[in-house]
Design goal:
Structural class: mainly alpha
Order of helices and strands: HHHHHHH
Largest sheet: none
């Protein structure tokens, strides 16, 4: 765990002093529910002015995509997402526009090879 995240979680615990669960639900003897998390996410989204449709699941997809764009090994992403199968992780790792843009065109590569071959034959 990142030290900054650990510090943030410790500060939360010192402030809230939750009993049992770090993020208690309602009633407090239960962990926070998916529904409560979704409501908190939607509220935070509105508070910061995000108008695009997004869900907590969108964050998982974004997380996986950003890690992939940062050249993290897909098997590490698999572990971080908690997937048993690599094929499940592959569904999360969307190919981003930047990655596509930065990928060399096979056609251009062939054209360069052809140009080099023509130049050699003329020499």
């Amino acid at each position: 765990m990142q030290p900054a995240l650990l510090d943030l979680l410790r500060a939360w615990w010192r402030e809230a002093r939750p009993e049992g669960w770090l993020f208690p639900g309602k009633p407090k003897i239960n962990p926070i529910s998916r529904r409560q998390l979704n409501r908190a996410f939607t509220s935070a989204k509105h508070m910061v002015g995000v108008t695009k449709p997004a869900t907590l699941h969108t964050l998982r997809h974004s997380f996986a995509t950003h890690l992939l764009e940062a050249n993290m090994d897909v098997r590490v992403i698999q572990v971080l997402l908690g997937h048993a199968k690599l094929t499940t992780t592959a569904r999360y790792t969307h190919v981003a526009t930047k990655t596509i843009r930065d990928t060399a065109s096979p056609y251009k590569m062939l054209a360069r090879l052809q140009d080099q071959t023509v130049k050699r034959s003329l020499e």
